[in-house]
Write a structure and sequence with these properties.
The chain contains 30 helices and 21 strands. By secondary structure, the chain is an alpha+beta fold. Strands 9-12-18-17 form a four-stranded antiparallel sheet. α1 crosses α4.
């Protein structure tokens, strides 16, 4: 390689990686190379359609630019790759059969590449090598290094807050010497615990662009925001001149992190100063040689200690709120996209960009709330959750909040062991054979855990199996439950298990959904192996078995006939296929699961399906991760007449040790407490096994295809360009149609745009008739009579179909009468 004409060290490293991998077992680094991931999703290798779903023009532009650079570099280096191939093959003397390598996915190439194994010298291999370097290489004094073992440490921000320091924190803990690389732990880690590292002062955009993941927590994340003034405001020429002189655009793109630290990026400071300084200061700053006293903004870099004056707060708030409003999807839309049946089946790179845009919106919402707090009167007590729900207390609830905060300052409950050895007495309770006994044991267990706030108790509820009753009067929007993290089953508690650690380590190398499997194996181990010896047993024994609830994932083909005509039938089949595929993955690591589950007859598919369904139906999300939350997940779902739009939300308090939930409505002692999940009935049915009678969030899933016979497909080139411009990347689009706002298609701009494209009309045209034709065709797909009559197992499926048909007819009738 030293004799070759290479333009940069990165190219030499990439070619070296390709060559060493092609050598197979003859390479000194073969064991390390085998451990490297085959798939590394990065912005440069994603398709434009997927990259656009990140809803970040800056990330999109960087991804496309890096892709073009990658393609150009490969073209330049192709002759060198060919020469290297000849050398490697000559050295082997034909004694070793060339190894076949999994093809690295260059999604932007589309479907023209065969997704089979190949010889290891193609563009995909060069892209794979660059992805490895981009995501794993360390940089010291401008040079790149791949360090086996060191690059296995996963990311987690440091538990102690720290200021950004341009990467110095990482370099302090990674010291390159003449003959070795010394790695110092940046935090205490117990024996058997996973070693994490803080990678430095990087944004989520960088982690997605280069590393192929999106952190669930990142104190150094920032969101690109365009600062702008209202169109009605005239940006005077002297203010424009000051901005030009200080080399800041009139509408700068600034990456904002949380404002709680009192810091602002330098361009934002300049922009705000230019827009708010008085006339005398403006004139002084435009002088050829202004003094530092007369125009301090030209000589100082006051990025810290921003005092948030009201005028500047209003300017920033206008820009931030405008960006929030400009997103084509909301936080709730993104959450639904990740947790819906279709979202569960999404490819990893597509889920990744949705997770990214969700993190960006949450941060932007946090900044908006911080600005609102800066602008509010000091005595106002307003706190709003990042997802748009109230999480702070109102004045009438101040005493309760003070009580919670006082508890939070005290040492939390001692972390209970996640497991105990089978046969020990810890966690053991007398065996129960009735649901009433289980509920009694559960309530006693909860009482022993010292919840800071708990105003509910589990109870047997006829027709609903188990629910929760208020134990005292509860006001709307007051905290009624604060669950200690120590009793929550989570990825973190799973990783504390020495028994599970080898299995979880194996899964982390098999899939990028390792967190899901960590919680799944945690649940399986505690329920089937530990049982009464488990700390969690009083909670676990209350979980329903599949035969008790018979969810759609258990439907036979005969049962599926009930869903004939409903798009939900396809969704359920996709869900069942995904569960089956996940089971195949678990079977592939049988050697790792055997030591954990052999004592109880092994890990069977039936046990796996149960645990999978429990996670899908009962997980509560915060900080981007699933959690099984005792007591909270016993609350039944119902839309509250008090405020039907109010949707459940649970969040960690400021200490990070308690999961706090606010009441959606007033409840009296002894009254069953409900939460509204804010989902349509098809989601409730598929994942929870029930259908709500009253549900203002309900809608019918309808798939609309543009085919070659449609007027809009007369010019395919023009159609594709219009689809790309509007963010449609498939010829089949699914919409959930409802009777809200009269069921008019104009209430859903994307639906109206898709129907206009399909019919060949312009975007301002009325597409009501086209919409109604789609609904009539949809109704015609249902059979005249629904199967399954008299079968109680499919009663909810029959109810769902009946509600879908009624909703579709209601929209058509409303349209006919208008």
């Amino acid at each position: 390689l030293a004799s070759l004409d290479l333009g940069q060290d990165e190219d030499a490293m990439a070619l070296f990686l390709v060559k060493e991998r092609a050598m197979g077992e003859r390479s000194f680094w073969a064991p390390y190379l085998r451990s490297l991931p085959v798939a590394i999703p990065q912005a440069a290798t994603m398709s434009e359609e997927v990259l656009a779903e990140a809803q970040d023009p800056d990330l999109y532009a960087k991804g496309v630019e890096r892709r073009q650079q990658l393609a150009a570099r490969f073209e330049q280096l192709a002759p060198i790759l060919s020469k290297l191939k000849e050398l490697v093959e000559a050295e082997s003397g034909g004694a070793q059969k060339p190894r076949r390598w999994p093809r690295f996915n260059l999604a932007w190439r589309g479907g023209d590449r065969e997704a089979t194994n190949h010889g290891g010298w193609e563009e995909e291999d060069f892209a794979w090598a660059n992805a490895v370097l981009s995501s794993r290489a360390l940089t010291f004094r401008g040079r790149r290094y791949l360090a086996p073992i060191v690059d296995f440490f996963n990311y987690q921000p440091h538990p102690q807050p720290r200021a950004a320091a341009s990467g110095e924190f990482y370099l302090e803990h990674h010291q390159l010497g003449e003959e070795n690389l010394l790695v110092l732990s940046d935090r205490a880690t117990s024996s058997g615990g996973q070693v994490f590292e803080d990678y430095g002062d990087n944004s989520n955009s960088l982690y997605l662009d280069h590393h192929g993941f999106v952190p669930s927590e990142n104190p150094f994340d920032c969101v690109h925001t365009t600062l702008r003034v209202d169109e009605e405001v005239d940006l005077a020429s002297d203010r424009q001149a000051v901005l030009r002189r200080l080399r800041v655009p009139e509408s700068p793109l600034v990456c904002f992190g949380s404002l709680a630290s009192g810091e602002l990026p330098w361009p934002a400071h300049v922009w705000l100063a230019a827009l708010t300084m008085d006339e005398a200061s403006l004139a002084a700053c435009l002088e050829p040689r202004p003094s530092a006293d007369a125009c301090p903004i030209r000589f100082q870099n006051p990025v810290a200690g921003w005092q948030h004056p009201p005028t500047e707060v209003a300017l920033l708030a206008g820009s931030v709120d405008a960006q929030i409003a400009a997103y084509p999807t909301s936080i709730q839309d993104d959450l639904a996209a990740l947790t819906s049946p279709a979202g569960d089946a999404l490819p990893y790179d597509q889920r990744l960009v949705i997770q990214y845009r969700l993190s960006q919106k949450r941060l932007l919402k946090q900044i908006s709330l911080e600005l609102a707090a800066f602008g509010a009167e000091a005595e106002a007590a307003v706190a709003v959750e990042a997802d748009g729900q109230v999480v702070g207390a109102r004045d009438a609830q101040a005493m309760e909040v003070e009580q919670v905060e006082e508890q939070a300052e005290k040492p939390g409950p001692a972390a209970m062991p996640t497991t105990t050895e089978p046969g020990t007495e810890q966690g053991r309770a007398p065996a129960c054979d009735t649901i009433e006994c289980m509920v009694e044991q559960f309530n006693a267990w909860v009482a022993a855990q010292d919840f800071p706030v708990n105003k509910i108790a589990a109870a047997v509820v006829p027709g609903m199996r188990v629910g929760t009753l208020a134990t005292s009067e509860i006001a709307a929007e007051e905290p009624y439950l604060s669950v200690p993290s120590a009793v929550v089953m989570s990825v973190d508690s799973a990783r504390q298990s020495a028994v599970l650690e080898p299995l979880l380590r194996v899964m982390s190398r098999q899939t990028r959904e390792a967190d899901f499997y960590a919680l799944l194996f945690h649940l399986l181990y505690e329920f089937y192996v530990q049982r009464e010896a488990s700390f969690y047993w009083p909670y676990l024994q209350l979980l329903p078995q599949l035969e008790e609830i018979y969810p759609p994932v258990e439907f036979s083909e005969e049962d599926m006939r009930v869903l004939a005509g409903s798009t939900v039938a396809d969704s359920v089949r996709q869900y069942k296929a995904r569960v089956a595929k996940n089971w195949q993955l678990v079977q592939s690591v049988a050697e790792a699961t055997a030591p954990v589950f052999d004592a109880v007859g092994g890990l069977t598919e039936e046990k796996f399906r149960w645990a999978h369904y429990i996670l899908d139906s009962r997980s509560i999300w915060w900080s981007g991760q699933r959690h099984l939350v005792p007591l909270l997940d016993l609350i039944n779902c119902q839309e509250m007449a008090y405020d039907p739009s109010r949707v459940h939300g649970t969040n960690l308090d400021d200490t990070g040790r308690f999961a706090v939930t606010l009441s959606p409505a007033p409840f009296q002692p002894g009254e069953q407490l409900f939460e509204n999940y804010g989902q349509p009935n098809y989601i409730y049915f598929q994942y929870h096994g029930f259908v709500l009678e009253e549900n203002t969030h309900d809608c019918v899933l309808v798939s609309i295809k543009i085919d070659e016979k449609d007027p809009g497909a007369a010019d395919l080139g023009q159609l594709r360009e219009a689809m790309r411009r509007m963010g449609f990347y498939s010829g089949v689009q699914s919409f959930c149609v409802s009777d809200r706002q009269g069921g008019h298609p104009g209430s859903n701009p994307r639906l109206a745009a898709w129907l206009a494209l399909k019919s060949g009309k312009d975007m301002q045209s009325d597409v009501t008739e086209e919409f109604h034709e789609v609904l009539r065709n949809k109704l015609g797909q249902y059979p005249e009579s629904t199967a399954g009559e008299g079968n109680p197992k499919v009663a909810m499926a029959r109810k769902l179909v009946a509600k879908e048909k009624a909703l579709l007819r209601g929209i058509l009738e409303a349209g006919a009468s208008s």
